[in-house]
């Protein structure tokens, strides 16, 4: 019997740590979130935008940061490190040291006077040393916690015993030089490590002149330059002479894919990072020419290739496939790049500015942490984890997520976080949680009958809004509106200190309705609603005016008109707010069971994760065999995939909580989050089975593309990678003879018009299979004809190994594809001639191939559409299931209670499918572990005195949420089913129905304000 | 009055009823992608286009709208 605990320690509070903490906290587990720096947030706050959606990084992160600091189950320790972990899984004892902050965090009001007066000025690490900060400072503008801290290394008083100016100027008396380091001893069941990565310092590469030439910067420095809240306020200028650059060069793989410095891995994110920076820079400076010097463009993630193509077609980014060997500087600070093409040709080009796309590397303190916590590192110094257990460290009970065990981008980090959470559960005691009031919740004020007293806040959103709209004028305009008692501006309304401001103003002015003019309510309304409820207001006494997404961003070139429109929008918001009424949210009971659709690796893994945490699972598989695509994989770099398959099936079958439905189709899925009812039909049976469950996980997989090119099907020697694997396993090759010349063509059916996505796995698969062939037939000649070799992360190692073994790589472009001809038309086993232009020798080469292997695409399943309709979820343009948010909700759907894993989401390998499946299980458990959740308050209501029970609403409701009570002769709304669409309201001929939060009165009030606008504009 | 008509002709005020799930999200996406459209489009979020009562349209016109867009 293993020990079980109710708490977990998460080390590192970047996006990965935050996500892990939130998932655990939602399951009712107490989380100790330990962060070394003075604020949570990690790397994301340093980024300006995120690829491939160009979402503002801080804007999508801020709600998660706020949520974690508010969550009653999360305790945050900043400026803290883990000293030791002892004990056994299920019962660890951890010792945490919190460094002295020298500022009383309870008293500090974050006014910033102390930093202003501090005589010490040191380089600000957060802003990549592009700005100075005081010895007392706030880590960054939207820091959480937002209080100031003193840096003991640079404070004059702490080092030399003189100064204490901050103490004199602090109006709150918060400075405390007697503060001491504090130690905490905590008991936890498991540990999740998420302490992230460092970036490579290019100072070691003298030939690029970093730090010698002022106009050579790193990609992270450039990101801070692009950021609206960065040291340059979002104006791209050359550090040397503050002139706007007109040409900009990005140099890729600086500190990545480099055996000389033991960085023989790909940093995975820098290609997309550079493309994004090139696009954003071009948006800042219209006549800028960005150029990217690269070896391979690795845009392998979901929808990345579309972004890459757009950078060329829409933004004119130039791509130069070559290696930059040297940079020199002229008298004007311009930089002359010397670069070498594959064929040895050397060229020179002058640029105004150069950005070095620096790679990712392990954190400098990882060795120390590894010793303290007793886990191993891999050959590159990252935390070691294995392909089939991608979330485990070598120490039991200690798990890893984020980029700490391999370079990753944001969505993958978030996925690993939820995945790691699922792994910790075996050492935790989960209890289904009741719906209880949050501890310390502020009782709701009764405002009914009070005159509306509206508070209007206008957000700058850095320069996202303030750069276009005159936000001061909008706030002043709001102040002139009837019932507005207070109006003002906020720099980032969603930051913790601004939300505190809102709460203070509510108290100070006795406000009872709040309007915030900022970004979109789709992302930020929940946060503001929670904020006002913390101040004692009903959360529905809130209205947002969308002056960013639907105004400043859309009207960037018309600042005056955008300001006028912002005034209109806030007037409408205020008018509607005047009529708002408090609403109640009703509980919806949750069924703890789940249904997993698809019995491949992802589906089986998700089912096992759920069942091991005590949830009953219905696993539905269309075919009569489990395993999906894994059945066709016979080789891997480190382990045997068939063993993985057998083990997984064994675990699945042994678990009594899992009910397997083989050869079964889903006919219908009814219901909603927590209360689904699905109709299953087994092949050959006419007796449908109905199962009830609270969540659905889609893991339906994908298909291998069947090539229509390269004469596929016309000779037994023209095969796909999957067919090659089977041949290698059976050791049987066409014609009965071992092949001498093998050609592999990459990107067959991928990265083309109409299918503009990378299939992600085929480069690695080709490298893997070529390696196996080389081992089997050491004398065989292998040619891999490729567009970009996308062996991301540690897969790079196998690519360079294969090159070392003599495999030939020939580059082709889609406008000059290789040509294939049969040697003998009549022979079904004929050899084939492959002709391809080789840029290295600058002419066509012809290969008589014994085997032509096509690396075919991963295709979305056609059936996806039916399932998507059944569950009311979306597909992307390639037919893959579309997650709720490309960055921060990678396994959720916009529809509550439905989750996503495996190839159905997009191409990925086994290890990634396992991670995603565990993540999906974990996300589902965040609410399956609750007895009930709260329904929305915006639902329909019936005024019974007006209702004539005509039944028209009953017919019209798409959700069966309304029916006629025959006895009372009135319509009745089912609160749990009502989605609040309001179709019934518009159809009701007696005006008996209304939609709470969007009542006729409230809507009319919004248009009435238009009248006022017109009069005022004249 | 003449003045007002001329002003309307230059930038007619178009009240746009946008469904929260699709076209309102679409309008956000337009902003995220920095696609521009006339500032005279004034979005009003509704939970569903089926919520739009004909009275909304009439009231908007009466209150000075020059045109109405329903997205859903």
How would you portray this structure in words?
The complex is a heterodimer of chains A (1018) and B (72). With 1018 residues, chain A is α/β, with parallel strands linked by helices. Chain A folds into seven domains: 1-98 and 181-196 and 363-431, FAD/NAD(P)-binding domain; 100-180, 2-Layer Sandwich (Alpha-Beta Plaits); 201-361, FAD/NAD(P)-binding domain, CATH 3.50.50.60; 454-578, 3-Layer(aba) Sandwich (Rossmann fold); 594-702 and 860-930, 3-Layer(bba) Sandwich (FAD/NAD(P)-binding domain), CATH 3.50.50; 706-858, FAD/NAD(P)-binding domain (3-Layer(bba) Sandwich), CATH 3.50.50.60; 940-995, Alpha-Beta Plaits, CATH 3.30.70. Chain A is 27% helix and 24% strand. Chain A is built from 25 helices and 52 strands. In chain A, the strands form 17 sheets. In chain A, strands 5-2-1-13-24 form a five-stranded parallel beta sheet. In chain A, strands 15-22-16-17-18 form a five-stranded parallel beta sheet. Chain A has a five-stranded parallel beta sheet with strand order 32-31-30-36-47, with helices on one face. In chain A, helix 12 crosses helix 13 (521-534). Chain B is an alpha/beta fold. Chain B starts with a helix and ends with a strand. At the A-B interface, helix 14, helix 15, helix 24 and helix 25 of A face helix 1, helix 2, strand 2 and helix 3 of B.
Would you summarize the structure shown here?
Chain A folds into 7 domains: about 1-100 and about 180-195 and about 365-430, FAD/NAD(P)-binding domain (3-Layer(bba) Sandwich); about 100-180, 2-Layer Sandwich (Alpha-Beta Plaits), CATH 3.30.70.20; about 200-360, FAD/NAD(P)-binding domain; about 455-580, Rossmann fold (3-Layer(aba) Sandwich), CATH 3.40.50; about 595-700 and about 860-930, FAD/NAD(P)-binding domain; about 705-860, FAD/NAD(P)-binding domain; about 940-995, Alpha-Beta Plaits (2-Layer Sandwich).
